[in-house]
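Hi there, hope your week has been kind to you so far. For a while now I've been wondering how a particular protein folds. I'm sending you its amino acid sequence along with the backbone structure tokens. Could you read through the record and tell me how the tokens relate to the sequence? Take your time with it, there's no hurry, and the full record follows here.
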Amino acid sequence: MKSKYSLEFTVFICGAIVMVFELVGSRVIGPFLGTSLFVWTSLIGIILASLSLGYYLGGKQADQNATVSNLSKIILFAGICITITIGIKDLLLLFLQKNVGEIRVASVIASIVLFMPASIFLGMVSPYAAKLKLHNLDHTGRTIGNLYALSTAGSIFGTLLAGFYLIPFFGTNTLLILLAIFLVVISILLSMKTQRGIKIAVLFVLVMGFIAFNFLSKLLEDRGFLDIDTSYNRIFITDSKPTEQNLTIRRMGINNEAHSSMYLESDALVSEYAKSYHLIRHFYPNFKSCLMLGGAGYSFPKSYLKTYPNATIDVVEIDPKVTQLAKDYFKLKEDPRLTIFHKDGRTFLNHSKKTYDVILGDAFNSSYSIPYQLTTQESAQKMYNLLSDDGIVILNIISSIEGGSGKFFRAEYATFKTIFPQLFVYPLYDSKNGKTIQNIFLIASKSKHNVYSLTSDEPFLNDRLQKFWNHKIDNDIPILTDDYAPVDYYIGAVQSRIAKSQKTRGLCKKVEQFLNTL
């Protein structure tokens, strides 16, 4: 590439690739470690540190022997590092998910191993190109400034292109392969002679990998597995048939969370937690309208429409692609009693003027990342304002009640207690041990006067009502507000407990297997 502006073009493109690589990184880590503040902090911090180190090393190397062929090697190595990332990412992240309970540690390790090497080489490009571009010391400042401005402009372009088009269109794995291919091609164009054999070999491997990956994706899709990137999420859809039954279960996982499931051969709800939302008919028998925050596969809204033919439901789902997938794969159908709003749940609460009898919170169904803006006192006040006089809110929270892993629940309980006159707590599985991590239903009533029975003539409802938590809930955690909401910190303790218990169960199983051999 002998163009007068070849170095400027190289700097611009590499600047764009840095930001595309960073944004794709969140989709690489998300299915294993979530997309919490901790993950983004680790990813951004490590890549910035890598670029800084790259600037230093690039300047140092350029002062020793700055040639276009050496610059082409640097870009080639960046492409090779991304290629290695593609090959090891799933194995590494699966290992970290199973063996490192602290999400902050796991996300830092993942960012260092997967994204630091390529980012260092990409950081070396700008100072190296600046050295090659300098011919007159009178214009040093202008030359360096122009190149770094081009690099920044490339980063802006890459950010917008990746967020608006590339990630939703190509998906995570395909886009990583394309980034590596692009870097190798630029390296070849800069210097056709240097490392020609290695460059052609790497390019061949990447092209073959691209073809093989797309073939494999099509094969997996035909067998019921989909890996889809949207503007908001990375989504997995899988089919499985548990050995204890003959029904096929289809699941939708969003950023490492199993958000929805359904039977292909039955309309019955799969998830026990989803069934508990039917407590609405016990706490508000004559309800007519419902708002649900979080749609995913629309499991409960479909059950709601079938169970309550005289009631309406509005669903707020931020991701329109999720709704389309629910229509394509989860039997979601148009219904005049169902209205779907594609916007952030808090934004909807802020602007809605409609009154509801019931508000259901399914956006809380996470142990990795929770939209903090829906957990705060201000959000609870918005829910209160949208409810009818006897209206209720039902939130599904994954937490314990007591101990360090119960901080989020206790914070949420204290927060809603400042707004709602009556609160009821129903653990889904264990109503005696407050340290058990499980689905916990927090029911908040707007009514000051209604007296609610803790039993029901319906066996199903009565079973759920018998889980009522009648023990003291410590008031030891500050309420959550828009100004102060350390939600990611609180749920980090939940993740740590889950990971430790999984390791303990795995160790016990190995010990049991060993004892059985004696």
Q: What stands out?
A: DSSP finds 16 helices and eleven strands in the chain. The first helix runs from residue 6 to 33. Residues 367 and 398 are 6 Å apart (CA to CA).
